[in-house]
């Protein structure tokens, strides 16, 4: 069998379209994942809530209570307050929610930390293929909202990378000597300024290698979205092969394109490490 370069050149426009789609999914997914991961990592680092049977049981009871309250609110809206305008009814529910949050204000960080820990546990414990299949096929049945393939792919990569980035952030923050935080507190700085100007810069330098690794992993994970028909690089390669049956040439070209993308990420990572004086 001979390697036909003409097949690769003929397929290159479609492969480049798939490459652009892969880059788009990866960038948007990592952008959202970084926000989710940073917030989750900070909360789980500084608000300690051990995931135990007692905490899980308390959370389950809380969910049951919230579900019951929502059903009661729905029943009241359909019967007792049926004549009340929707805007007024929503305002009443908003006031009740604000009053509830104000009453249990001290518990909000603990609840958020517990939710973040459960989120990380669930996402890291399930394959990304299962996650995207659930979001694309099952979630519309639950919420009654149809999600297109591209949105499902971006959202899946967002929540998947967010769980791993949260642990990267937590590890980076825990690696910073505690004396830096104590020094900031001794200067009278509020916690958010200590995090931004004292702990954050040091932790960020230590997170750069693992964050770069996560970028490469997320880029390659985008190929799994072929299962929902997103026209990313792998999907484009599969469709081209279905038409010309030249698997060696097309999959070779796909592999090279992925290698180029990951190589660019690796070079950028080395540059950033050099600029931040990583050793």
Task: Name its key features.
MetI-like fold; mainly alpha; flat; 279 residues
Q: Can you lay out the helices and strands and say which pair or pack?
A:
Layout: H1 5-46, H2 53-78, H3 86-103, H4 108-124, H5 128-143, H6 149-175, H7 178-186, H8 191-221, H9 233-244, H10 247-275
Helix pairs in contact: 1-4, 1-6, 1-9, 1-10, 4-6, 5-6, 6-8, 7-8, 8-10, 9-10
Structure description:
This protein has 279 residues and is mainly alpha-helical. The chain has a single domain, classed as MetI-like fold. The chain is built from 10 helices and no strands. Helix 1 packs antiparallel against helix 4, helix 5 crosses helix 6 and helix 9 runs antiparallel to helix 10.
The name of the CATH superfamily reads MetI-like
Secondary-structure element order, N to C? HHHHHHHHHH
**CATH classification, class level:** Mainly Alpha
Unreliable parts: none
Cα-to-Cα separation, first versus last residue: 48 Å
Q: Evaluate the radius of gyration.
A: 24 Å
Helix content: over 70%
């Amino acid at each position: 069998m001979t390697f036909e370069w003409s097949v690769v050149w003929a397929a290159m426009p479609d492969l480049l379209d798939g490459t652009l789609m892969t880059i788009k999914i990866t960038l948007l997914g990592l952008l959202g994942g970084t926000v989710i991961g940073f917030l989750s990592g900070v909360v789980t680092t500084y608000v300690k809530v051990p995931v135990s049977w007692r905490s899980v049981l308390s959370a389950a009871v809380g969910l049951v209570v919230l579900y019951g309250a929502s059903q009661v609110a729905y029943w009241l809206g359909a019967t007792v307050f049926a004549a009340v305008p929707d805007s007024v009814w929503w305002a009443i529910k908003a006031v009740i929610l604000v009053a509830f949050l104000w009453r249990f204000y001290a518990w909000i960080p603990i609840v958020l930390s517990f939710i973040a820990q459960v989120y990380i546990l669930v996402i890291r414990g399930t394959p990304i293929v299962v996650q995207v299949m659930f979001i694309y096929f099952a979630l519309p049945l639950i919420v009654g909202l149809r999600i297109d393939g591209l949105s499902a792919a971006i959202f899946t990569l967002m929540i998947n990378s967010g769980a791993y980035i949260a642990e990267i952030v937590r590890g980076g923050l825990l690696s910073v000597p505690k004396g830096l935080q104590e020094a900031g507190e001794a200067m009278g700085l509020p916690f958010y300024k200590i995090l931004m100007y004292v702990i954050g810069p040091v932790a960020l330098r230590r997170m750069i290698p693992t964050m770069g690794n996560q970028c490469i992993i997320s880029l390659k994970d985008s190929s799994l979205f072929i299962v929902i028909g997103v026209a990313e690089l792998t999907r484009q390669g599969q469709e081209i092969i279905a038409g010309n049956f030249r698997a060696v040439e097309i999959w070779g070209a796909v592999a090279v394109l992925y290698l180029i993308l990951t190589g660019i990420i690796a070079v950028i990572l080395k540059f950033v490490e050099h600029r931040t004086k990583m050793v």
